[in-house]
Amino acid sequence: MQSDPPLRFVVFDCDGTLVDSASAIIEAMNRAWDAEGLPAPDPTNVRSVVGLHLVEAIGRLHPEGSTADHNRMADHYKGAFFEIRNQPDHAEPLYEGTLEVLDRLDEAGVLLGVATGKSRRGLEATLDRHGLLERFVNLKTSDDGPGKPNPTILQDAMREVGAERENTVMIGDTVYDISMAVNAQVKPIGVNWGYHATQELEAAGAAAILGSFHDLDSTLQILWGVR
């Protein structure tokens, strides 16, 4: 008698992995800094902290500020991002192949989740804009636990669906995603179209680097035999 196939779980980061939101993030940071009378942060530095909990990201960009400053600037950022997202010309395009890869994983019976440094409100708004809100069995955000690279939100996502470590994959574009996966003892896969360089992802422990979502099928086949 054949046993049931193991439950497979693929967890995605959002910004820089599924959705190209860099322009909106940079603009919201600029507005937060402007609200404090500060010169805009370097866009390269802003990209480098995408994926962290917002207050921690702001702290890294403005290390001379106090905790109160960082919390206040986070509130400025949230208000600015809400305004930007609701502008008629706002665009946060999906990366090429996103819809196709989600379809293929669905068809293969793989469960899908998201683990992100975004707030729940922000994540749900982004996914809803692209009609993706119902595609994932769970969503883990900065509202649900410590930020990346702490593994808590990823471990909670796995626990909720009953996925084992060896049958879980985390896909992301930053070292924070890769490090979170390593800390949770799951397979980390990096992507080369996001906000951190391929060499950084490899150094953080990525088991593979995708050049396109079209490469995911063969990568998963190698890692755990799922097409």
Topology, number of strands: 6
For the biggest sheet, the summary is: 6 strands, parallel
Distance between the termini: 24 Å
Gyration radius over CA? 17 Å
Alpha-beta content class: alpha/beta
Q: At the fourth CATH level, what is the homologous superfamily of the largest domain?
A: HAD superfamily/HAD-like
Count of helical stretches: 10
The number of distinct structural domains comes to 2
Walk across the major sheet and give the strand order. Answer: 3-2-1-4-5-6
Q: Which ranges are low-confidence, i.e. pLDDT below 50, for 5 or more consecutive residues?
A: none
The CATH topology label of the largest domain is Rossmann fold
Structural commentary:
The protein is of the alpha/beta class. The chain has two domains: 9-20 and 93-224, Rossmann fold (3-Layer(aba) Sandwich); 22-85, DNA polymerase, domain 1 (Orthogonal Bundle). It contains ten helices and six strands. It has helices at residues 22-35, 43-49, 54-61, 67-85, 98-107, 120-129, 152-161, 175-184, 198-204, 216-224; strands spanning 9-12, 111-115, 138-140, 168-172, 187-191, 208-210. The chain has a six-stranded parallel sheet, sandwiched between helices. Helix 8 runs parallel beside helix 9 (198-204). The protein is globular and about 60 Å long.
What characteristics describe this protein?
DNA polymerase, domain 1, 227 residues, Rossmann fold, single chain, alpha/beta
Secondary structure layout:
Layout: E1 9-12, H1 22-35, H2 43-49, H3 54-61, H4 67-85, H5 98-107, E2 111-115, H6 120-129, E3 138-140, H7 152-161, E4 168-172, H8 175-184, E5 187-191, H9 198-204, E6 208-210, H10 216-224
Parallel strand pairs: 1-2, 1-4, 2-3, 4-5, 5-6
